[in-house]
Design a protein that fits this description.
single chain, alpha+beta, five-stranded mixed β-barrel, two-stranded antiparallel sheet, 5 helices, 29% strand
Amino acid sequence: MRVAHRRTTTVRCLTALTLGLLALTGCGGPDDGPDDGQAATATATATASVTSAPPAPSPDGTAPSSGPSATAARWAGTKQFVQIDDARTADGRTYLSVRPAEKKPHPRFEAWVIVPGEGPYTEVSMTEDAQVLLSVPLGDAKHPAAYTQDEFVGRLTARSSSDRALLGFDLSFDGQGRVTRVQSLYTP
């Protein structure tokens, strides 16, 4: 009889602990969860770990293409400083060919010096409502001003490849790794 009582007590304690943990993790109010930065980090970490395995071959046996999804997952919920080599619009969406770079304050002016990155460019997509802010030399003024995605693509692709290598951009990514904001840096 005593063994049955211990088992019942143990089961009740484990049940109470489980219900308590469920309540703590699933029943919080809107202000009880992690802040946006923690949530974005958790999302990016979880997404990156899921996509770190090599992709499975397609049904026809060919190797899958390495599209924007792997990099998008890696950058989900983050801000990145990048160079943009090319931009295009297809199927109503804007795509950017990007690679990480560095920015340093200009030694004599209120501007930035762009330190080009190395390695391949990766294509990422923009959300339909992504904000585009451009400064000189890509925009018309020293201070950032809003432009449409089409204006941005036109202004960027009108420049030579060597000119584009001197431009730098701050990009913000949503939880799915799509660009939600593009801001060019002022460079004299």
